[in-house]
Amino acid sequence: MTGALALAGCGGSGDDKPELAVSASYMPQPVTDEMAAGFFTVANKGGAKDELTSVTSGAAGSVTMHTTVGQSMEEVESLDVPAHGQLVFKSGGNHLMFENLKRKLKQGATVTVELHFAKSGPIKVEMPVKSATYNPATGH
Questions:
Q1: How many other CB atoms are there within 10 angstroms of residue 63's CB atom?
Q2: CA angle 121–39–130, rounded 5-degree value
Q3: C or N: which end of the chain has fewer Cβ atoms within 10 Å?
């Protein structure tokens, strides 16, 4: 048993870098033609943290990241993706704000976003537009 515990502590060569994957992405159908929100989860199976530094999308003039503190939202420049952890964007917490929408986004449409990180390469995400009242089973 001691040998198994010792081996479990030895990480492979991939353990010293982030290993990112995105899931549970969606955008509630916007209630206005100018602004929308977006939600998703970034999981990091790697042994090093990373940082989400920006998000871009052809669907909006700008995409900003926000966190909720108390009852107010604050724009942030970056968000940590912890090693062996996750960064969650959900209603009432971290979220994206799509501003100056370039087209009307209706339920059933898909919005492509590109996530940019400090260490990892960019990740393209297809974000489905759900109903304005959509509440995912995951709670995000």
A1: 21
A2: 125
A3: N
Secondary structure letter of residue 5 according to DSSP: H
Q: Are 53 and 81 in contact (CB under 8 A)?
A: no
Number of alpha helices (DSSP H) and beta strands (DSSP E) in the chain: 1, 10
Position 12 scores a pLDDT of 46
Cβ contacts of 129 within 8 Å, gap of 6 or more:
26, 27, 28, 29, 105, 106, 107, 108, 109, 110, 111
State which amino acid sits at residue 9: G
| Residue 4 tokens, joined | 């198994």
**pTM, full prediction:** 0.86
Which stretches of the chain drop beneath a pLDDT of 50? 1-13
